[in-house]
Design a protein that fits this description.
8 helices; 2 domains; 63% helix; alpha+beta; Heat Shock Protein 90; two-stranded antiparallel ribbon; single chain
């Protein structure tokens, strides 16, 4: 925290008022204003010296090495601080006494004792300021380190998310080209349409290639284009349904999260290209729920072990939402599989 002159002046006034009151209680035989002159003159100098002590501590850090050097520097600084304090304080007190029609006497016979007393007091004040400066600097350094660690962690997480998202595109592209190649042997026109659809998909993907989250409407458009290509491949043997709750298009969701799940259902749940696959998107409070169901062959083994698609989805959900998400698989009666994905969302309303 940085202090301006107003804060320093306020601090001096508070210190002077407190010390003056304590001194007044212990010196009831003198005029009431005198203890306040003594203490205010000291407080003003103490506070005025704070910035210099802070700079000295930052120049010669209290926790640095060698220790002997730090001790020597601060011992010299205490002597200077005390000399400056005594000199200016006496001058201020003499001035205040003159204005009051009296004289302030810094008695010569007792001068050594007075100087020793002042030095003790100044050494304590100096050390308090020095330790406070060290504590504040140490707190700031630790806090900045924590903030840097959080920032680096966030940047690492973002980089990992972008890497995981990027993994989906070549994986999808390979599978899509393989699908088109298979269809080309049977129906050139259908393969040509699928190439056009693939071009639209890739254009949409690269338009948002740096984004980890996108509006739901954009994610669903990608999914519909992909599903249309897959339905065209199997020439009416495969049905795809998409049911979306109204007014969710602007909700921001993880990019390319649905497509790998749907692709997995096509490849493993409906491997012969026959059956129905449905995607249902609903909002439940502050959570979005995807339900992907098929009437295919059902579960066999660990779905997450089938390839990079589902494992990629699982890792991205963990990075984005930690433990606040759901990715579950269960049997669909009478046959097939149901995949459920839930995660928290904010609440924008689509235009």
């Amino acid at each position: 925290m940085r202090f301006g002159w107003v804060q320093y002046l306020l601090l001096a006034l508070l210190m002077g008022a407190y010390s003056g009151t304590i001194s007044r209680i212990g010196n009831l035989s003198v005029a009431a204003w005198k203890p306040y002159v003594w203490e205010y003159s000291s407080a003003l100098i103490d506070v005025a010296m704070i910035p210099f002590i802070v700079k000295l501590e930052r120049r010669f850090n209290l926790d640095s090495r060698p220790r002997a050097r730090i001790i020597a520097v601060n011992t010299a600084a205490i002597l200077v601080f005390s000399a400056v304090h005594v000199t200016i304080a006496v001058a201020l007190r003499k001035l205040a006494y003159v204005l009051a029609g009296e004289s302030y006497i810094f008695a010569i016979p007792t001068l050594p004792l007075r100087l020793f007393s002042e030095f003790q007091r100044d050494a304590v004040v100096y050390l308090i300021i020095l330790l406070a400066a060290f504590a504040i600097r140490d707190f700031q350094v630790r806090r900045e380190g924590e903030l840097r660690a959080v920032k680096l962690s966030a940047e690492l997480g973002q980089a990992q998310l972008q890497h995981l998202t990027a993994q989906i595109e070549p994986h999808f592209l390979f599978n899509a080209l393989n699908t088109i190649s298979n269809r080309m042997r049977e129906d050139i026109d259908a393969a040509d349409r699928m190439i056009s659809q693939l071009g639209d998909l890739l254009r949409a993907a690269y338009d948002t290639s740096d984004e980890v989250v996108v509006p739901l409407g954009r994610e669903l458009k990608w999914l519909q284009d992909y599903a249309a290509m897959m339905v065209a491949r199997y020439r009416g043997q495969l049905a795809f349904d998409l049911d979306v709750e109204p007014n969710l298009e602007a909700v921001r969701v993880p990019r390319l999260l649905l497509q790998p799940i749907v692709e997995n259902a096509f490849r493993h749940g409906l491997p012969e290209g026959r059956g129905r696959l449905s995607v249902d998107v609903r909002r439940i409070g502050m959570r979005l729920c995807y339900t992907i169901s098929d009437d295919g062959v059902g579960l066999s083994g660990d779905p997450l072990a089938r390839g990079i698609g589902l494992s990629n989805v699982s890792r991205r959900l963990s990075l984005l939402f930690a433990d606040d998400h759901q990715l579950s698989f269960r049997e669909h009666s009478p046959r097939g599989t149901i995949v459920t994905v839930q995660f928290p969302v904010s609440s924008p309303v689509s235009p």
